[in-house]
Amino acid sequence: MSVQQNFRRALVAIGGGLLVLLGLAGFVLPLLPGTVLLVAGLLLWSTEFRWAREVLARVRAWLADRSAKWKDGRWSRSRRRRDGRGRTSG
Fold this sequence. Notes:
67% of the residues lie in helices and 4% in strands. By secondary structure, it is mostly helical.
């Protein structure tokens, strides 16, 4: 590997690491979008690291599954629905 390739790889590793750390902090701090920063860090890492591509593929599959469940209405914890008077049915 050339010096330029090593430098690029180091920048990607550091930048992705910073984004992932900010993403983890975003789960605790109210002003940072944790999920967005975490995925952005994985996207940056996936340009250089195979393990990050595999993790990102798992995250994409998980998000697609959650999205499908959300669209189908299977996301709610309870199948019971409230009627207009606050009572539950079903």
